[in-house]
Q: What sequence folds into this?
C-alpha cells in the first residue's frame, strides 16, 4: 500500500486520535482529498508534496462547537460580533466550526449563500431561535421575535443547519422566563435537531433567572441537547451561589452535553473548578470566538484548550474534547473528529511549547500553566492551509506570566 501515489504526505508526526486510541509516530498519506494511508513510512518519491511534521502532533481536524463566524454579512465598520470564518477556522488550527446563533431563520441566507460558499473552513449552523439572530441584541424581546414554523421549515431546507441556539439572557428571560427555552426546544424537536442553550449571563439577580435555569435543566433539555457556557460565573448558570444546581446532574444523566464556550463574558476558572468538583466535566471545549473575542479573552479554540491544560487536563483530553466529542455532539462521528482511511482529510497539525503562561477569565480571575498547544497548519479536504499571524501581537502562544 505504501507505493501508492499521494498528493500529500505528512511525514513523521505523532499521529494522535484520542477517539480511536491511535497514538503513534508515522506518516499520513492523502490523495484526492481523502486520507488513504495511516502509519508507517510512506514512499516520498510518489508524493506531490511532502511536509515534514516530525516532532509535531497530527490530530483529527479540530471542531469548534461554538463560534460566531458570520463575518462579512454584518456591519462594514465596528463589527465586534462576527469573526471571519477562515481566520478562526482553517487559518487558526481548526477545520470545522459551528456558528451558534449569529443568524436566525429570516437572515440565515447570508450564511448559507455567502459565508459558507466563500469559506474553506467547514461550517455548520445552529440558527438562533430569534428570527434575526444577534444582528440585533437583544435578539428576543418577547415571543413575537420567534417564528417557530418558519424556523423548522428553514432547518429542514438546508443541510448546513444542524441545530437551534437560544440565549437565556436578559431581557429575554425577564419577559419570557423558561418559555424562551421551551420555544427554542419546540423548533429543535420539530426539525429533529439539538438545541444549544446559552445559560446564565444575566447582569442582575433576577428572580426568573434561577427558576428558568432549573426548568431548563430538569424539564426541557433532552439527550443530545447542548448547554454552552458550562463554566459561567453568572446568575442563571449552573452554579447557584457556588453550589451546582442538582438539576444539572439530572441533565447529565439524561445525556445532555456540557460545552464550554469560553467567549469574553462567560468563563471563569473558579466556576470551572467548582463545577468539576461537584460532578460535571465539560464534554466539549469551544471558544465562542467573535470578531472582538478573537483578540481578547477567548482568542480561539486552541487557546480555549490551553485554558484546560492549566486546569489539569492533558493534551490527549483536550484533543478528545475538540475532535471525537464535538463530532459526536454534531451527529457527525461517522465523518468527522477522527483520523481514518477513506475519510476526508481534515487534519490539525499542532505543536506544544513550554513557558510560563497566564490566562485571564471573564470574572477577573486567572490561571497559569507551563505549556501550551500552538497550531502549525491545517489540512482541509486534503489541502494545506497556512496559519494567520495569530491572536496576539507575538503570535499564537498564550500571554507570558
Ligand atoms: Zn456565542
A:
Amino acid at each position: 500500500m505504501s507505493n501508492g501515489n499521494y498528493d500529500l504526505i505528512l511525514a513523521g508526526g505523532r499521529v494522535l486520535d484520542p477517539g480511536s486510541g491511535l497514538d503513534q509516530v508515522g506518516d499520513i498519506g492523502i490523495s484526492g482529498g481523502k486520507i488513504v494511508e495511516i502509519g508507517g513510512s510512506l514512499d516520498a518519491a510518489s508524493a506531490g508534496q511532502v511536509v515534514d511534521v516530525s516532532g509535531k502532533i497530527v490530530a483529527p481536524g479540530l471542531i469548534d462547537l461554538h463560534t460566531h463566524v458570520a463575518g462579512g454579512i454584518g456591519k462594514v465598520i465596528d463589527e465586534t460580533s462576527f469573526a471571519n470564518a477562515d481566520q478562526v477556522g482553517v487559518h487558526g488550527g481548526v477545520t470545522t466550526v459551528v456558528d451558534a446563533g449569529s443568524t436566525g431563520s429570516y437572515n440565515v441566507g447570508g450564511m448559507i449563500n455567502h459565508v459558507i460558499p466563500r469559506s474553506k473552513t467547514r461550517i455548520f449552523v445552529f440558527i438562533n431561535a430569534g428570527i434575526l439572530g444577534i444582528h440585533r441584541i437583544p435578539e428576543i424581546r418577547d415571543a413575537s421575535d420567534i417564528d417557530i414554523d418558519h424556523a423548522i421549515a428553514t432547518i429542514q431546507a438546508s443541510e448546513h443547519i444542524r441545530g437551534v441556539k437560544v440565549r437565556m439572557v436578559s431581557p429575554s428571560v425577564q419577559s419570557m422566563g423558561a418559555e424562551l427555552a421551551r420555544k427554542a426546544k419546540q423548533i429543535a424537536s420539530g426539525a429533529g435537531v439539538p438545541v444549544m442553550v446559552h445559560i446564565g449571563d444575566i447582569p442582575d439577580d433576577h428572580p426568573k433567572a434561577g427558576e428558568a435555569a432549573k426548568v431548563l435543566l430538569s424539564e426541557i433539555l433532552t439527550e443530545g441537547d447542548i448547554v454552552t457556557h458550562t463554566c459561567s460565573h453568572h446568575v442563571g448558570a449552573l452554579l447557584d451561589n457556588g453550589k451546582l444546581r442538582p438539576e444539572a446532574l439530572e441533565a447529565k444523566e439524561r445525556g445532555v452535553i456540557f460545552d464550554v464556550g469560553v467567549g469574553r463574558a462567560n468563563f471563569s476558572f473558579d466556576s470551572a473548578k467548582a463545577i468539576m468538583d461537584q460532578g460535571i466535566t465539560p464534554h466539549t471545549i469551544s471558544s465562542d470566538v467573535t470578531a472582538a473575542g478573537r483578540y481578547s479573552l477567548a482568542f480561539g479554540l486552541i487557546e480555549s484548550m490551553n485554558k484546560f491544560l492549566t486546569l489539569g487536563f492533558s493534551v490527549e483530553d483536550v484533543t478528545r474534547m475538540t475532535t471525537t466529542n464535538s463530532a459526536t455532539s454534531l451527529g457527525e462521528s461517522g465523518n468527522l473528529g477522527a483520523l481514518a482511511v477513506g475519510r476526508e482529510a481534515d487534519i490539525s497539525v499542532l505543536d506544544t511549547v513550554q513557558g510560563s503562561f497566564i490566562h485571564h477569565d471573564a470574572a477577573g480571575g486567572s490561571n497559569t500553566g507551563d505549556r501550551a498547544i500552538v497550531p502549525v497548519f491545517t489540512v482541509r479536504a486534503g489541502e494545506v492551509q497556512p496559519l494567520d499571524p495569530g491572536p496576539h501581537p507575538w503570535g499564537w502562544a498564550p500571554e507570558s506570566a
